[in-house]
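During the no-cost extension, the postdoctoral fellow (Dr. R.K.) reprocessed legacy sequence entries with the updated structure-token encoder. One reprocessed record is reproduced below for audit purposes.
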Amino acid sequence: MEAAEIELDRRVIAREELVEALAVSAAESTAVTGAGAEREHVSSPVPGSTVPSWRDGLPVTVLAPDYQRLLGVLEEGRSAGRGPLKAREIAVKLGLETTPAKVEGLRSKARRLAERGGLVQESSGTFSAVRRSVALPDAGPSA
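Re-encoded structure tokens follow.
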């Protein structure tokens, strides 16, 4: 059973990375065709959508709901004076099951946010929020 869960975790992560790579590729081709357009169009996020590089003033609403909740939990902890959290601790705060598949999926999302500047990943593998100039949504349980 454990081997099957590990394989499932790998497939979930691989699928997320594939979806992200395809979305980036599509975004690049759209950017080339729409290079003459002056206005910036921000659509509402869809589950599995790409995670943009973080910059000041970027609203959290450009992220898919799962990413918003993840950021909300870490921001709540930062403002309460708590330190960085492990993926398992974040899962508990989000009301998720702490099965390896759920925790690894959450860890993958947190790493993706950290790679793009939305979170800080400590050398210990824990994650913490960075200061934001925009409000975060409530950190309710994930669907």
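The chain has a mean pLDDT of 77. The two ends are 25 Å apart (CA to CA). The remaining legacy entries will be reprocessed before the final report is submitted.
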